[in-house]
Amino acid sequence: FLNGIDPDFAAALGEVDIVTARNTVYETSDTLGGSYTTRDKVFLLSMAELGLGKNDTIAEGTVLPFYDGATQVDRIKYDVASPSTARYWWMRSPNPWSANSVRRVVPDGSLHSSGASDGYGAAAACVIY
Q1: Residue 111: how many CB atoms within 10 A of its CB?
Q2: Per residue in 67-96, pLDDT tens?
Q3: Is the dihedral of CA 17, 18, 21, 26 positive or negative?
Q4: Predicted TM-score of the model (pTM)
Q5: Is 36 in a helix, a strand, or coil?
């Protein structure tokens, strides 16, 4: 992914620790519940980062300044080719009660979940140093 973006921009990206909740139904190595941490330069946003609270009992980070005090309307993402069309978009937060369901934001900006095989968009995030 990083090879496909401008090298100067890629060089400005900093690595950050990203917390993601595990689901409570199935995980590899028989680990259920809790969370895991990865170190990433580009990542999907979590419920907590969007100001939507904990994912079950797991805080997947803290609310980002852009989304602090945000309303549903502030979470709407629009289609680049059709700027008046709001789109569904994935978050990294799993639905903890399902082995194949992930949280998403729907066109009105509210939180929902859906099967991970559904074809929605993504709004990648990064930290620039």
Answers
A1: 16
A2: 999 999 999 999 999 999 999 999 999 988
A3: negative
A4: 0.88
A5: strand
